[in-house]
Design goal:
Keywords: Membrane, Transmembrane, Transmembrane helix
Pfam family, one: DUF2157
Mean pLDDT: 84
InterPro entries: DUF2157
Structural class: mainly alpha
Distance between the termini: 31 Å
Protein name: DUF2157 domain-containing protein
Helix content: over 70%
Strand content: under 5%
């Protein structure tokens, strides 16, 4: 069992076992080969034992129906966590002015502590960590409220360092319990901190960091590089979330900058700045697709192809919507889509030949 320290690897092994069993049935049905009864019994017993242990330790899914239900449970966990956090927020909002300051301080300090203790208790008794994830979201929101209330009570000057504290808290819980929802919250806070810090160094007030999309490019590059510097042996599925947040940050910023030259830190003609970012965006899409294929990360490839397609669609609309008849516009658009399809297919064939 040491070879499968995470639920993802255990689930992949279960899927391979089921695929092997189905393929073996097909081969035997075709009459090509038939395993001796004793050999088949040993293999089936070994697989059944593995699946049972994975089910007990990692709460793996053994059928397509179970996978669909698990996805629904994850969505419900997220929605339930948000609803519970909203309930706690409005409860404190209603009674906040009615309780003394000492009770306020004790409340905001004890909320995340009690939530983390409850989270630990739930994680020990439920391998799927659905309830732990829900309670962890409450702990995170409680910690956010904690810093906000303490800062307000003691007149602490607001700064982007709050994002770092919130992100650090969420990441600690995420890595301790293997929770992807808290990992995503922590990465978003870390991205906000990095972007706001870049904006502050550039001379703008940190709360206005969203007005400069270039800030997110630097933060995204940092997050993209982190998984290559930090090994994730225990939580290898976390790497995808680093890539997701980083690449969405970079590509969205490049897409916005290709239309918004006046938002740039660069001095010069706005049209030239936009053309420069359009060129950079195309290069970034190509690098993203190549990196996804090279590292065999389908998610990275999908992000690159999606943004590449979105970029061409928006640019063609910008260039030709008013200049061409609508029928001709959509015909040209269909031809370009087919051209992109041919290009991606050619890239796939080259990769197959290389392999």
């Amino acid at each position: 069992m040491d070879r499968f320290p995470s639920k993802k690897k255990a689930q992949e092994r279960v899927d391979r076992i089921q695929a092997f069993q189905k393929e073996l049935q097909e081969i035997e049905s075709s009459g090509l080969i038939r395993l001796p009864y004793e050999t088949r019994r040993l293999i089936e017993g070994y697989h059944a034992d593995l699946i049972s242990r994975f089910k007990q330790q990692f709460d793996t899914d053994n059928s397509a129906a179970e996978k669909q239900l698990s996805l629904g449970m994850r969505i419900l966990t997220f929605l339930g966590g948000l609803a519970l956090c909203a309930s706690i927020f409005f409860f404190f909002y209603q009674i906040w002015g009615l309780i003394p300051e000492s009770v306020q301080i004790v409340s905001v300090i004890s909320l995340p502590i009690l939530a983390v203790l409850t989270m630990r208790f739930a994680a020990q008794r439920e391998p799927s960590h659905y309830y732990a994830s829900l309670i962890g979201l409450v702990a995170f929101i409680g910690f956010v409220l904690n810093l906000n209330v303490m800062g307000s009570l003691y007149n602490i000057t607001p700064s982007q360092n709050a994002f770092l504290a919130w992100g650090g808290f969420a990441l600690i819980l995420a890595y301790r319990f293997g929770l992807r929802l808290l990992l995503l919250a922590g990465l978003l806070c870390l991205l906000a901190y990095l972007s706001a810090t870049v904006g502050a160094f550039s001379g703008i007030y940190w709360l206005h960091f969203g007005e400069r999309p270039e800030n997110f490019i630097f933060g995204g590059i940092f997050l993209l590089a982190l998984p290559f510097c930090i090994k994730h042996h225990k939580n290898p599925h976390f790497i995808w979330f680093y890539h997701l947040v980083a690449l969405l940050s970079i590509h969205l910023a490049l897409l916005i900058m290709s239309y918004c030259g006046h938002c740039s830190y660069l001095m010069g003609n706005e049209n030239r700045i936009e053309v420069g970012y359009q060129t950079a965006a195309l290069a970034a899409y190509g690098i993203t697709v190549w990196l996804g294929v090279r590292l065999q990360y389908p998610g990275i490839t999908h992000i690159g192809t999606t943004f590449c397609t979105l970029f061409f669609y928006t640019k063609f609309f910008d260039w030709w919507w008013d200049a061409l008849p609508k029928s001709l516009f959509f015909f040209v658009l269909s031809l370009i889509t087919i051209g992109l399809l041919v290009l991606f297919r050619s890239m796939r064939d080259r990769f197959r030949e290389a392999v």
